[in-house]
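We were asked to recover a plausible sequence for a given structure. The inputs and outputs are reproduced exactly as logged, with field labels preserved.

PROBLEM: sequence recovery
POSITIONS: 107
GIVEN STRUCTURE:
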């Protein structure tokens, strides 16, 4: 059984749902338009870019972006690395141990 502590409060008859600036807003005002907001907004860096970079790729064809190759000292897959860094293959005993939840190791 749920017991609520304290007086019951009546829900307000009228609630103002108009947009309000956040109490911690540095300007304490709302932007005029969404476009004005985007000019100043930041999300992992500025949203408005003047030069090449994030957001500018969509305006170019894939061919104009150049070849898609990893840079010097970079690899896209672990199998392109030296042998000591590559993935090892699973042995049948390891596969059986995983499939049995470890029970095959003791019996």
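RECOVERED SEQUENCE:
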């Amino acid at each position: 059984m749920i017991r609520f502590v304290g007086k019951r409060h009546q829900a307000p008859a009228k609630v103002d749902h108009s947009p309000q600036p956040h109490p911690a807003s540095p300007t304490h005002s709302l932007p005029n338009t969404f476009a004005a907001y985007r000019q100043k907004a930041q999300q992992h860096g500025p949203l408005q870019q003047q030069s090449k970079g994030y957001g500018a790729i969509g305006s170019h064809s894939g061919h104009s972006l150049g070849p898609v190759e990893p840079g010097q000292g970079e690899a896209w897959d672990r199998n392109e690395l030296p042998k000591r860094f590559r993935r090892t293959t699973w042995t049948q005993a390891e596969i059986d141990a995983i499939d049995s939840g470890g029970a095959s190791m003791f019996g």
